[in-house]
Amino acid sequence: MKKFIFTLGTTAILSAGFAGGASASGNDTYQVQKGDTLWSIAQNHDVSVDELKDANNLTSTIIHPEQNLNVSIIKEITHKVERGDTLWSISQKYGVTVEQIKAWNGLGNDLIIPGQVFAIETSGGSQAVAQPAPAPKAEPVQEAAPAPKEEPAEQPAPEAEQKQEPAQEAAAPAPQPEPAKEEQPAEQSQQSGKQLTVEATAYTASCEGCSGVTATGVDLKANPNQKVIAVDPSVIPLGSKVYVEGYGEAIAADTGGAIKGNKIDVFVPAQADAEQWGRKTVNITVLD
């Protein structure tokens, strides 16, 4: 009998036995197809080329189409029982049954202890691969120590939650935000007065040929920070105080040839400010 030995983890020993040069379990055969090689067949059936040669009394790797090859090879591995193992979990790990393990190892009951070594047989090149087994049935290994309880460590959690509750109650009354000073002009816009939606542009007193003096006599060059708008007097009387959205409170102190109807021109100190303002639609309130 020929033996092939290798290790599985630290305790598994694989052996293959063949009768008449090789022994096969069952009548599992594979018919060689065109393009097959002994190596490809060995890979597909999870065995080695040497095992196939021995199982089929081959003296070389030459094979022919329609040739029937025996690919059913008995393999035996061993499993060393570890703490927490049961016969059921071991059977699930290697894809066999509990009764097979008991028969292979002459067991009369289901009791196992750590350190025992069991023979596990597989056939047809299906090597045992460790798989995560489902929850084991009630077949505990002797000397298995109960898992330590962790309940005391979790008990402080409710106390921590109770301590947090007073803090949450203390933080419940949220301070009421005070109106920002920046919002005061918006409040002015809500005062009684004539409200209009107008098209607003911007102008400066630094243009070429401009005197810088408004229609009502305000010298804008001498007062570059003065809030002044140009209006159509038939819509907004000259001298009126007007609140302009995005500009603030201004005096209707100027006119313009293009300022007709619901149009205004807001004064800004520099040309860059006028370009930034551009042309926009704004709401205004004529305060008086």
From TrEMBL:
Compositionally biased region (Low complexity): 128-147
Keyword Cell membrane: no
Residue span of region Disordered: 128-197
Segments forming domain LysM: 28-71, 77-120
GO molecular function: hydrolase activity, hydrolyzing O-glycosyl compounds
SUPFAM superfamilies, sorted: Barwin-like endoglucanases, LysM domain
Entry keywords, A to Z: Signal
One Pfam short name: 3D
Any single biological process term in GO: peptidoglycan turnover
Name the UniProt record assigns to this protein: Peptidoglycan-binding protein
